[in-house]
Amino acid sequence: MKNFSRQCWLGLVLGLFMFSANAQDFRVGYVNTDRIFKEANAAKAAQAKLEQEFSKREKDLVDQGNILKAASDKLEREGPTLPDSQRLARQKQLVDQDRDFQRKRREFQEDLNSRKNEELQQVLERANKVVKQVAEAEKYDVILQEAVYINPKLDITDKVIKALNATPAK
Hints:
It is a single chain. The protein has five helices and two strands. The chain has 170 residues and is mostly helical. Strands 1-2 form a two-stranded parallel ribbon. The longest helix is centred in the middle third of the chain and has 54 residues, at 84-137.
């Protein structure tokens, strides 16, 4: 099904090219959104904001993981000499701590992914506005964001990044 829709889309684009073969002024451009997410100041600022927002939680998780590892290593060293009841109690405690650690790590990852998606969505919305502005100013008929192959001369990503960096964040 995905292949079929991709073929239909490709057929539509090719049809547009053939239809416009008579029109000498048909212009196509391409924007690499991955490069925008890596190189645009807005994307870098969003990444820095996320790092600042989540750095304390990440450090706490790393510390908790190190403590858990040290406790596990200690039990492994001392386990053979401990009485069964004490060894079992420490094993149960480690299992409970590990479960809590895994839960916190999952929650952290979910929160981070959610916030990252929010921030990248804002960057993408700003970038799409800039793409439209560039397309209208330079009279492009079609701007593609995904393609199997694109001739580098059609790539307007640098123009978009430059215009995006020039516009202040709201």
